[in-house]
Amino acid sequence: MVSPSVVPYIFLLLFVGCSARPLYPLPGRRNDRNKQPLQTFRAYNIAHRGSNGEIPEETAAAYMRAIEEGTDFIETDILASKDGALICFHDVTLDDTTDITNHKEFANRKRTYEVQGVNTTGFFLVDFTLEELKLLRVKQRYPFRDQQYNGEFSIITFDEFISIALDAHRVVGIYPEIKNPVFINQQVKWPGDKRFEDKFVETLKKYGYRGSYMSKQWLKQPAFIQSFAPTSLIYISNQTDLPKIFLIDDVNMPTQDTNQSYWEITSDSYLDFIKEYVVGIGPWKDNIIPVSSNYLQTPSDLVARAHAHNLQVHPYTFRNENKFLHFNFSEDPYNEYDYWINKIGVDGLFTDFTGSLHHYQEWTNPFASGEKEATRLLHKIELMLSKFKYFN
Ligand SMILES: *[C@@H]1O[C@H](CO)[C@@H](O)[C@H](O)[C@H]1NC(C)=O
Ligand SMILES: *[C@@H]1O[C@H](CO)[C@@H](O)[C@H](O)[C@H]1NC(C)=O
Ligand SMILES: *[C@@H]1O[C@H](CO)[C@@H](O)[C@H](O)[C@H]1NC(C)=O
Ligand SMILES: *[C@@H]1O[C@H](CO)[C@@H](O)[C@H](O)[C@H]1NC(C)=O
């Protein structure tokens, strides 16, 4: 028989236990010094450009949505304005994701530059000051995604992005990319001969980001630094011990700074070399498992070889829409997550739909091992309570 005095507590526990949501600390225990920590027992949910499947990419709203949906890390691409401000933006040109063409005052800013060996024409972010960039509004990249937020949100700076992560009610990591460093260093100059990479690391340090992977400092403010340019990652290696991820492009794309081929940078000898500087690789997922006629082919051994070198693997990009899902997954993004997490064994996933990945993981793998004990106890209490109800 359950003593009546414990019944209110049981109701409280039952309420928490029945809910499909994770067990948050009780409200009184939550404050800024005791935030819910980063989960580290399952593959990382990396919100690619924020929750950009729903809200225009790299905006404050897209990042806040991703945090609300349960992301572990918010991901961003860092470029620089003409006056040297670090900006969250993916493309070197503003054309595809802003309303630049509506701004007649900027009509004469169209340029052609050679970017990674390709002559590219458009409105280049590096030709605009931060003040000018703030006049623009961001729009959804893909026509088949929700257009209702087009024109609502502005471009944000690296500083603003960091504030979003630090202001979150739980620990949310950041995952910024040193984007197009060769081009940015050609186009943008900083006082004192500073390089883009120097400004990038200075910004992280200014907000207290430091510490190696899983160190106490890192767990307080987790960050991964990513780049397709190995030279940039090596250059910053004596400025910060934050963990770095080496991104790997399409098999046909040489690295932008060292002109090495995909086969060179995925060889065992290269993995041996780069592991001194990075904790993992971020390959395009279709390179890990080649695709033909929208069917997966035989998986390569890249994940196994990276793991053998003690390197994590965070592939990109997971997207819910049918046009991005290979037929093997029966048009179901959960099947795709299941395959990559449980069969291929990746350590993190860049997703356009943080909410879907979070639901999938909460459903299949909600608790770290310690929490399992707590759950068992709750089940026991639920059982006791069901008997109590019966006697009522
Ligand atoms: C880009 O255009 C310039 C000027 O027309 C030309 O000299 C250069 O060879 C072009 N570069 C490429 C990669 O096509
Ligand atoms: C880091 O190494 C670079 C060369 O790779 C050198 O120019 C720079 O002075 C070094 N910085 C520090 C802080 O040691
Ligand atoms: C990069 O490497 C490829 C293949 O080795 C070569 O054809 C090309 O000329 C190189 N490009 C540069 C800019 O060095
Ligand atoms: C994907 O489906 C195709 C066609 O049924 C099959 O040949 C292939 O083996 C499947 N790939 C994987 C990795 O399951």
From TrEMBL:
It comes from the Eukaryota. InterPro entries: GP_PDE_dom (IPR030395), PLC-like_Pdiesterase_TIM-brl (IPR017946). It catalyses: a sn-glycero-3-phosphodiester + H2O = an alcohol + sn-glycerol 3-phosphate + H(+). GO terms for molecular function: glycerophosphodiester phosphodiesterase activity. Its EC number is 3.1.4.46. Residues 43-361 form the GP-PDE domain. Residues 1-20 form the signal peptide. GO terms for biological process: glycerol metabolic process; lipid metabolic process. Keywords: Glycerol metabolism, Glycoprotein, Hydrolase, Signal. Belongs to the glycerophosphoryl diester phosphodiesterase family. This is glycerophosphodiester phosphodiesterase. It comes from Nicotiana tabacum (Common tobacco).
